[in-house]
Specification:
The protein is elongated and about 75 Å long. It is built from eleven helices and no strands. The protein has one domain. It has 286 residues and is mainly α. The longest helix is centred in the C-terminal third of the chain and has 43 residues, at 243-285. This is Inositolphosphotransferase Aur1/Ipt1 domain-containing protein.
Length: 286
């Protein structure tokens, strides 16, 4: 009898069975890693939500710093109106008259101004954070910078919207107050009616279009430009803003985009410089 014959094979037991994980079996390490990643994402989302929520509250309540400056705001409104006439800009009243020919169109623009602006901005932020997080920091910073600069202008230059100027001068009516709905009809004091300059309805609509055109690659992405175009028509037809308000809002967004672009370039240079230096040292030592 050989040695091999003298050592019979033992039956597989819990101690001798193959303990290697079978193919497709979930890994405890992988599950823990996914759990930590999900927890980190949730925490980051919470901090970003709090940050933007604080920005929104500071902006909304900061605008009330100019409360009690109605006379100054009306004076500025008359000055802006006269300046636009000197510049031969299109008459806001002519735009409004086109819409007033249809009762349904008038209600539609009021609903757009009242209900579309804020939900559209929220939808954009959620979409960017969930689907295109690599651009989230820059989009967030553009919103913060543009909104912060807008608040400074609101404080330094209170401005009554066209709907609050004498109708005999402008030929405009307050479509929201007459036909509804109006964000200023609640009387809760939350909205400041004398902070028309700049228009963040237009500013944020431009940000939305910029993000879509920048992030997507489809040829249909340019349809997003319709958002700021439609918003401009709405805020003018409802007599909530002057043309100049939209121009200033657009310039603030352009400035914010350029500031974030320069900051991004500076960060890339700061990251790449040590790598280039090490490579140069390595080549020089050979």
């Amino acid at each position: 009898m050989t040695t091999a014959d003298a050592q019979p094979t033992l039956p597989a037991t819990s101690a001798t069975a193959d303990t290697r994980p079978t193919a497709g079996a979930p890994s405890a390490t992988g599950g823990a890693r996914r759990g930590r990643r999900a927890l980190g994402t949730a925490g980051y989302a919470a901090t970003q939500t709090v940050l933007l929520g604080l920005l929104f509250m500071v902006y909304r309540f900061g605008r009330h710093i100019v409360d009690g400056h109605q006379a100054e705001a009306l004076s500025h409104g008359i000055a802006v109106w006269n300046m636009e006439r000197c510049l031969r800009l299109p008459d806001e009243a002519a735009v409004q008259q086109l819409v007033l020919q249809s009762h349904y169109a008038t209600i539609l623009i009021n609903e757009f101004y009242y209900a579309i602006h804020f939900p559209a901005a929220i939808a954009l932020l959620v979409w960017v954070f969930v689907r295109h997080r690599f651009v989230w920091p820059r989009v967030r910073n553009v919103i913060i910078i543009a909104t912060g600069m807008a608040l400074v202008i609101h404080i330094l230059y209170p401005l009554a919207p066209p709907r609050l100027l004498p109708m005999a001068m402008t030929g405009l009516i307050d479509t929201g107050a007459i036909f509804g709905p109006s964000p200023y009809a609640q009387g809760d004091g939350f909205a400041n009616e004398y902070a028309a300059m700049p228009s963040l309805h237009i500013g944020w609509a431009i940000i939305e279009a910029w993000v879509v055109v920048t992030v997507l690659h489809s040829r249909w992405r340019y349809l997003a430009i319709a958002q700021p175009v439609a918003t401009t028509a709405v805020v003018v037809a409802t007599a909530n803003h002057y043309w100049v308000d939209g121009v200033v809002g657009g310039l603030l967004v352009l400035l914010a985009v350029q500031v974030t672009r320069l900051a991004l370039q500076a960060r890339i240079v700061a990251v790449m410089r040590p790598m280039v230096t090490r490579r140069s040292d390595t080549c020089g030592s050979q």
